[in-house]
Design goal:
about 20% helix, Rossmann fold, globular, 6-stranded antiparallel sheet, 6-stranded parallel sheet, Elongation Factor Tu (Ef-tu), domain 3, about 250 residues, single chain, alpha/beta, 6 helices, 2 domains
Length: about 250
């Protein structure tokens, strides 16, 4: 794994020379050998809508990351997957508390909650859960009513469900409008030996659950975020049937 070429505090100089802001790492949580969560404190006020993304960088290389935190939270929470030969995630992986990254001053993206729909089916794989956590945290914080959320999350292994405890807790506390279904695609492999939940690729389970939940096409929006193959499959399966699908994807590097 390559080391970060930029000294911990040198992001400040880069930001000054490029017109970018900076953000300091305040916390870090390692989930697996290639998945981790960082919390960033922006040097300048940073506003966003749930579901939008921030653009962070090191050594002049920038990438977009969906924001996990809700707008009312004081720090930006980002869920990252390591791409071993990528340009940015290897140096990001070396960062510790106190180190800095550059931050574009504005959030971007239109992958936000559409309030014109009553039912929101949120389909994700691994890090694709990030914008949905932000949306749900914000919805609960604001005490909004009139919407139902159905979260379907897929992963190869159960230890990749980084926000499973939080999402399951939301579903237990609000069973009338939040449902969470995680599924593993490799149920026979050793890391999933203790798994007793749903099994199969998440995109192949959507139709079953749309029927089980008795959702209607007119008041339901299907969101898909994560692996490009999953997103394409969801679109190809459901758009021709008359379902509305909203997508979000980023190229990993």
């Amino acid at each position: 794994m390559q080391e970060a070429n930029i000294p911990p505090k040198a992001a400040s100089a880069v930001a000054l020379s490029t017109g970018l802001s900076i953000a300091e790492v305040t916390r870090r949580r390692d989930v697996t050998h290639d998945l981790w969560v960082v919390w960033l404190r922006p040097s300048l006020p940073f506003t966003f809508k749930p579901g939008q993304y921030c653009t962070i960088g090191l050594n002049g290389v920038e990438r977009a990351y969906s924001i996990v935190s809700a707008p009312h939270e004081p720090e930006l929470e980002v869920f990252i997957e390591l791409v071993p030969h990528g340009e940015l995630t290897p140096p990001l992986y070396t960062l510790q508390v106190g180190d800095q990254v550059t931050l574009r001053p504005r959030a971007k993206g239109i992958f936000t909650l559409d309030p014109s729909y009553v039912s929101h089916v949120m389909v994700s794989t691994v890090t694709g859960i990030a914008p949905f956590v932000s949306m749900l945290r914000d919805h609960l914080y604001r005490g909004q009513k009139g919407h139902r959320f159905y979260v379907l999350q897929g992963a190869s292994y159960q230890h990749e469900f980084t926000y499973a405890e939080e999402l399951a807790g939301m579903a237990r506390q609000h069973p009338d409008f939040i449902t969470y279904v995680p599924t593993v695609s490799r149920p026979q492999e050793a890391p999933n030996a203790s798994w007793s939940g749903e099994a199969g690729r998440v995109n192949l389970l959507v139709e079953h659950y749309l029927e089980q939940w008795q959702l209607g096409k007119q008041d339901t929006l299907v969101y898909a975020c994560g692996h490009p193959g999953m997103i394409e499959d969801v679109k190809q399966r459901f758009i021709p049937q008359g379902w509305k699908v909203k997508e979000e994807r980023f190229w990993k590097a």
